[in-house]
Amino acid sequence: MVVYYFSLPKVLFESNYTTVIESKEGQFMGAKIADDGQWRFPENDSIPTKFKECIIAFEDQHFYSHFGFNPISMYHAFQQNRKANKVVRGGSTLTQQVIRLHRDEKKRSYFEKMLEVILATRLEFRYTKDKILQLYAAHAPFGSNVVGLEMASWRYFGLQPHQLSWAEAATLAVLPNAPSLIYPGKNQNKLLTKRNRLLKKIYENKVIDKETYELALLEPLPQKPFAVPQIAPHLLQKIAKEHHGEKIKTTVQLDVQERVNDIVTQYYSLYKQNQVYNIAVLVVDVKTRNIVSYVGNSPTDKDHQKDVDIIDAPRSTGSILKPFLYASMLDDGEILPNTLIPDIPTQISGYTPQNYDLSYDGAVAANRALARSLNIPAVLMLQDYSVTKFYEQLQKLKLRDVNRHPSNYGLSLILGGAETNLWDLCRAYSYMANTLTNYNQTQDEFRTNELADLNYNVAIKTNFGQPKREKNVFSAGAIWHTFNAMKEVNRPQGDEAWRFYDSSIELAWKTGTSFGGRDAWAVGITQDYVVGVWVGNATGEGRPLLTGVESAAPILFDVFRLFPKANWFTIPYNDMEEKRVCKQSGYLAQENCEAILQWIPKNDKKTSNCPFHKLVHLDKTEQFRVNSSCEPIDEIVSKSWFVLPPVMEWYYKSKHANYSALPSFRSDCIDVTNEKKMDFIYPNPNATIILTKNFEGKIQPVIFKVAHSKADTEVFWYLNEAYLGSTKTFHEKQIIATTGTYVLTVVDEFGTEIKRKITIEKE
């Protein structure tokens, strides 16, 4: 009895299973063949009625009445085999066939048959009849390398087992009887005969009516096997690593996945003409963090890395991290949304950032700098905030590929010096979106696990933790202002006038382009979805014209058009305060500037007051500045004036026609102020200048530039005390010099002097 009890292992089949993924709706999306080369689905917990009736009628009519074996059937089989002098009939029950499958189809013999009988009875003690049928259906061979009913149903009919017709179920029921001899596409007459005989049997058993029987006889046999669908091959690849040999019902919406696949295919056909071969798209449901669509790569070929899953691949960030810096500085009270940030030629410890269009605004509001993705303001903002503090923020956002020491990144951290992946990026932006929505819906609460990971398994419900009053990374007010700035990012060509159409998509979005055109990013955020797009070459090869705006953004907007239009984010008034803000500078208002009321994050009330508005004293004509040395006090007109430093002013006034330079002092007045009236535009401090040659081999001159706050002032130029000449109004001076170290000196007609040390080298 002990031997009998332990005669079967606890797990009857330890087979290599195929990794299978289904859509949220239960549709088959793809499978990865088992390690042993068989298409074998994991065991199902049910068996369709039609197949059950067919397999019992064909293999074991007394299945529900015997106890594992049928002695009458075995006796008849013995008689026929002895008469034929060979094995022509097995006489095995379905339970015995499960045992044979478990024992790897041992060679048929009478001893083996007796062993099957004993083990079959033991199996009947352990499992119900329906469970035994499930084991048979999951492990029976169906021809070629197809094992199990579910795979056979997909392979031969392109259907799930419960969708099979009576003729299709009968076809599959007869296949395990001789899978090496009869399967679709081979010995069709024998297969048809067996199928029709079985259909007649179940008709005679009154399982089906006459009309159903006659219609079933008319159904053709399957011919060429269906290809296994590959609707989300890179998600399958990811799941095969994490849930090898399992069937996973994913959160992917089949219709969205198929349409995103079509969008990616369309753009791949276009971009490959520019030798750009790889595209990845990830769509996330913000409220649940469930993956709605997962396209890990374009339908390219092996030569262009078609099997690489770009979604998890670390790629250079370009400008895609700028919103995180903006939100961080808002949250810490370092800036206000409209705070003016310098946008001038800049060199910091040998690092010289450039705007994409190589132009300068002089000064630009922080939210406009983000919307226009200006590089110089971003670098200067990071310098003020500090690389280390920003690095710590990125760690809180769980950007795994930002993993080197902050000093290794430096200020380039904000312009593509770091790497991230589409998965982490979409998780971070999903966190921001749902933090804001949840805050407004729950009376000012955050959640402990708001930065939960993205999820693709429908069986898992994301746990966002417990309510709390403290923020995780960003406050709701900072997030709202960040999204509001991102909403103003210039749309791709053809969508520039989106504000004038009711049907337009209202979303926060940002692009990024890495150095050399290697990576093009776009990420979009609404209350409902986050969509992330990457375009480029998996090999890292850059291409001209590959940018986030031109390459990734069109895909982003096409994907968002698949979803209903979402409402814009509600303003989190409870996380903000209404303050007087300087209309021109964006700083907290002081008494000398025109102020407006603006809702700002609570922490921003500690930002500094406007440094650009000054109280100046003018004569009655308001054309000249005066003071008590030249004008009676009772005749002096005091007025607030918006004044920028010389270099900022020089660029700013070229973009703002209404900017009024500070009036000069009247000739009879003594200027007792120590205002900085003049500064270098170029060169930068301690610059090294490389002399270049033209096509004729001649050395080209170097052009130095100076900005002066007073128009029509004459300035005088010196190089190592050698006089070079003077300029008036436009202060630019060309020089041709030999290599060496020099001191460039500029003096204006009022005696103001500025110096700059430079080094000149040959190419």
Can you describe this structure?
By secondary structure, the protein is α+β, with helices and mostly antiparallel strands. The chain is built from 21 helices and 28 strands. The chain has a five-stranded antiparallel beta sheet with strand order 7-6-16-15-14, sandwiched between helices. A hairpin with a 5-residue loop joins strand 14 and strand 15. It is elongated, with a radius of gyration of 38 Å.
Strand order, largest beta sheet: 7-6-16-15-14
The SS-based structural class is alpha+beta
Question: Low-confidence segments, ≥5 residues, pLDDT <50?
Answer: none
> Count the helices. How many?
21
**End-to-end Cα distance:** 94 Å
Helix % is: 25-40%
Any idea what the shape is?
Answer: elongated
User: What average pLDDT do the residues reach?
Assistant: 89
Structural key phrases:
single chain; 763 residues; alpha+beta; 5-stranded antiparallel β-sheet; 5-stranded mixed β-sheet; 28 strands
Write the layout of secondary structure elements.
Layout: H1 2-5, E1 19-22, E2 28-32, E3 39-40, H2 49-59, H3 71-84, H4 94-102, H5 110-126, H6 129-139, E4 146-147, H7 149-157, H8 166-174, H9 188-204, H10 210-218, H11 233-242, E5 247-249, H12 254-271, E6 278-285, E7 291-295, E8 315-316, H13 322-331, E9 340-343, E10 362-365, H14 366-371, H15 375-385, H16 387-396, H17 406-409, E11 419-420, H18 422-441, E12 446-447, E13 467-468, H19 476-486, E14 508-513, E15 519-525, E16 529-536, H20 548-560, E17 576-582, E18 595-601, E19 613-618, E20 637-642, H21 646-655, E21 678-682, E22 687-691, E23 702-708, E24 714-719, E25 722-728, E26 732-735, E27 740-748, E28 753-762
Parallel strand pairs: 1-5, 3-4, 22-28
Antiparallel strand pairs: 1-2, 6-7, 6-16, 8-11, 9-10, 12-13, 14-15, 15-16, 17-18, 19-20, 21-23, 23-26, 24-25, 24-27, 27-28
Helix pairs in contact: 2-8, 2-9, 4-5, 4-6, 8-9, 9-10, 12-20, 13-15, 13-19, 18-19
